[in-house]
Write a structure and sequence with these properties.
It contains 3 helices and 5 strands; from the N terminus they run ββαβααββ. The chain is of the alpha+beta class. It is globular.
């Protein structure tokens, strides 16, 4: 089973198992990681914004859809390796994925 490390806003790291074929947002929720997901993964907000730590991993992800790019434009702390957690589906090739949570979202502060 793949694993993913979430880097929380305070710098704390939490490595968790990430079953295949569920979204990164779902992985976070199953492990009490404070990744909001206000729209419950329906691609209608930017509150599950994550920052992919490794450029090569980011480059290997499927391209974001136009809808995802539109929502990312609303994200707090957007970077060149930002993605929405609801749009990243876990699979074996993502084993060891490291993602950083931004310090805040448009809906709540997580700092």
């Amino acid at each position: 089973m793949p694993s993913v490390t979430f880097i929380l806003a305070d710098g704390t790291e939490r490595a968790v198992d990430a079953p295949n074929d569920i979204s990164l947002l779902e992985v976070a929720h199953k492990n009490d990681i404070p990744l909001e997901g206000a729209c419950e993964g329906s691609l209608a907000c930017s509150t599950c914004h994550v920052i992919i730590e490794d450029q090569a991993v980011f480059d290997d992800l499927p391209e974001p859809t136009e809808d995802e790019e539109d929502m990312l434009d609303l994200a707090f702390g957007l970077t060149h390796t930002s993605r929405l957690g609801c749009q990243i589906m876990m699979n074996d090739s993502l084993d060891g994925l490291r993602v950083k949570l931004p310090e805040a979202t448009r809906n709540m502060s997580v700092a």
